[in-house]
Amino acid sequence: MRYRGLKRLSLKRKFQEINKFAWPDPNPFAIKVKLDPDYYGIIDDLDQRFAAGAPSLVACDELTVEGDVRFEKDVTIKGTVCINNRHDAEAVIKAGTVIDKDLVF
User: Fold this and answer.
1) Is 18 inside a domain boundary?
2) Distance (Å, whole) CA 59 – CA 25
3) How far is residue 22 from each of residues 7, 26, 32, 45, 60, measured CA to CA in Å?
4) Under a CB-based contact definition with an 8 Å cutoff, are residues 82 and 66 in contact?
5) Residues 36-78 pLDDT 10s
6) Which of 31, 58, 88, 100 has the fewest CB atoms within 10 Å around its CB?
């Protein structure tokens, strides 16, 4: 029994060693995301605004999206970012954009 427990512990450590290079933060799911419920509150609306896929949040600490904002493919968010569209018309984050500071439309 003791051997089995040591083996599990060893495998867990090995897994952690391998995966520490995959994530810059040891807890990659600690990202805070707040989406405007008026534009992202219904699944169809959410799908429409992320039609090309969700942005990469690997290097993101916190993301807040206020207003009507659509994301094209390969968008990357880094750090703590607030994206705010103050207009009635939809704002578009172009494909390949890297956002590392607040953005206001």
Assistant:
1) no
2) 8
3) 23, 9, 19, 31, 14
4) yes
5) 999 988 888 888 998 898 899 888 989 999 999 999 999 999 9
6) 88
Lowest-pLDDT choice from 1-5, 93-97, 98-102? 1-5
Asked whether 88 and 69 are in contact (CB, 8 A), the reply is: no
Q: Which residue has the tokens 């605004």?
A: 49
Count of structural domains, the chain? 1
Give the pair of three-digit tokens for residue 61: 């600490």
Statement: residue 7 has pLDDT above 50? no
Considering the domain boundaries, does residue 2 fall inside one?
no
Distance separating alpha carbons of residues 56 and 81, to the nearest angstrom: 13
